[in-house]
C-alpha cells in the first residue's frame, strides 16, 4: 500500500502544482497574447507594404486570421482579468487554471498558424481589370465633329457590334485626344465593360522583330503582365501570357486601346486577341486603335473605321478663340483683336494641330499690330516663318516618311507643286502630269499606267495627304500638308 502511494504521489504533486502556480500560468498566457499582438501587427504592415506594389492584393485568409486573433484575445483577456481579481480566494483562482491552459494552447496554435501564413505568402497577384484613368486638360474645347466620332465609337462598343475600331487621320487631327476621351468614358462604365487597358504602340524604325517585341511589351505593361524581359524574348510564349491574362479576366468585354499604331500586326499571334467575335477560347477582347492611314485599319480588319476629319469653319474659329482665351466681353481694342484673331484662325486651314499651336503662341498678346503681323506672316504676305509653324510642319512630316515607296513619295511632292493655295485639279490631270514627268509608267504601258496613277492617288488619300472631292473627281491639298511638302528635300 505504501509503495503504491509513493508511486502516485509525484503524479498527484505534478497535477496539483499547476493549480498552485496560478500566477505563473497567467504570465505565460499574457506572454502569448503579447506575441500574438506583435505578429498580427507585423503581418498587417507586411501586407500594406506588398499592396503598395501594382497588382498585389491581400489574401482573405489574412483578414480571417486577424479576426480570429482578435476574438481569441478578447476571450483570453477576459479569463486573465477574472482570474486576477483580488477578492477571489486562492482556491477560487485555482479553478481558472484549466481555462487558462486551454487558452494558452489555442494561443500557441494561432502563433504557429501565423508563421505558416507568412511562409505561404500574405498577398496574391490580382487579375487587374483596369489600367488607370488618363489625364485630360481641364476646360477642353469639344466640338461637334469630335463629339460625333467619340459617341459613334462608344455606341458601337456598348452595343457589342464591333470587334475592332480604327480611328485614322492626318497627324495633328486629334486622334490621341479622342482615344483618351473614349477610353475614360468606357473606363467608367464597368457594368458593360469588364476590363479596359491602354497602351501606346512603339516606333517601327528598328525592324519587324524589334517592333513585335516592343509591341508585346507595351501591351503587357498596360495590362500589368510581367513578360520576364530579362531572358530571351519568345514571341509565342509572350503571346501566350497575354492570352492567359485575358482568359483569367473571364467572361465579359475586355477593351484594349492601342494608340499611334504605325503598321498592321497579327493581333492573335502577337497578343492572343482573336480576330473575330468567336469567344470559344474564353477571350472576348475588342481592339480600338488609332493610326495615320486607313490602310492600317483595312489590314487590321477594322469593322468600324472612323476618320478624323478637318474641322468645320465655325468649329475651327471657336477652338482658336478658346485656346487663345478670348471671351465675349471686349473693349474697342479687344474687338479689333478678335476680328484679326478670326482671320488668323481661318489661316490655320481647319487643322486642330495648327489651330492649337498658333493660338497658344498668341496667348496674352494685346497689341493689335502683333496680331496683324502674325496674320500677314501666315498669309505669306511677308516672308517669315515662326517657330510654331516649324513645329507643325515637323510633326506632319511623319505622314510623308510613312510613304515607304519612293515613287509614291515623288508623286506626292509633284502633286504639292500643282496644288498651292487650295488649288484643285482633276485626277486625270494629276495622273497626266505624273506620266509626262516620267514619275509613273516607266515599267508598264497603256491603261496600266492610269491604273498605277489611281492606285497612288488612293494611297495618298488614305494617308490623308491629299483630299479628293468625290463629286467632281478633283484633288486638293491642305495648306499645312502643302507647306510640309515644300520643306522636304
Automatic annotation (TrEMBL):
<feature type="domain" description="NB-ARC">
    <location>
        <begin position="156"/>
        <end position="326"/>
    </location>
</feature>
<dbReference type="GO" id="GO:0043531">
    <property type="term" value="F:ADP binding"/>
</dbReference>
<keyword id="KW-0175">Coiled coil</keyword>
<dbReference type="Pfam" id="PF00931">
    <property type="entry name" value="NB-ARC"/>
</dbReference>
<dbReference type="InterPro" id="IPR002182">
    <property type="entry name" value="NB-ARC"/>
</dbReference>
<keyword id="KW-0067">ATP-binding</keyword>
<dbReference type="InterPro" id="IPR050905">
    <property type="entry name" value="Plant_NBS-LRR"/>
</dbReference>
<dbReference type="GO" id="GO:0006952">
    <property type="term" value="P:defense response"/>
</dbReference>
<dbReference type="InterPro" id="IPR027417">
    <property type="entry name" value="P-loop_NTPase"/>
</dbReference>
<protein>
    <submittedName>
        <fullName>Probable disease resistance protein At1g15890</fullName>
    </submittedName>
</protein>
<dbReference type="GO" id="GO:0005524">
    <property type="term" value="F:ATP binding"/>
</dbReference>
<dbReference type="InterPro" id="IPR042197">
    <property type="entry name" value="Apaf_helical"/>
</dbReference>
<feature type="coiled-coil region">
    <location>
        <begin position="26"/>
        <end position="53"/>
    </location>
</feature>
<keyword id="KW-0547">Nucleotide-binding</keyword>
<keyword id="KW-0611">Plant defense</keyword>
